[in-house]
Design a protein that fits this description.
Elements: E1 3-8, H1 15-25, E2 30-36, H2 38-41, H3 52-60, E3 67-71, H4 76-83, E4 87-91, H5 98-108, E5 113-117, H6 125-140
Parallel strand pairs: 1-2, 1-4, 2-3, 4-5
Amino acid sequence: MIIGYTCGVYDLFHVGHLNLLRSAKLMCDRLIVGVSSDELASYKGKRPFIPFIERIEIVRSIRYVDIAIPQTNLDKFEAWKKLKFDILFVGDDWYRSSQWREYEQKLKEVNVTTIYFPYTTTTSSTLIKNNIVNSLDMQAV
């Protein structure tokens, strides 16, 4: 059985999230998805719009997801120690970052393959949030 793992905040769930999960599930038998806690998500200096308990429930309801678990640590090697996945799925917006090269190298040593999927450039949670704020600003005028 091939176990895949991916993780993210999954705030304002959109088609980019769905594309990644669908593509990942096609490449493994069991897909585990880590959903970042509200505290962990704030590492980017942002707070999710949707509370953690709702975000993880949304992810759990996606048919491509076999298991959704809380992600409280950014260290992917620590996640592997607990979950023993075979493939790590990542958006290619992280490709070639020094942090991800380190994860990729450590995981390679335990026979984990890292697969980068194309980032959906037409949408993102940040873009959706900005559109909402802009819409509200226009209504205030």
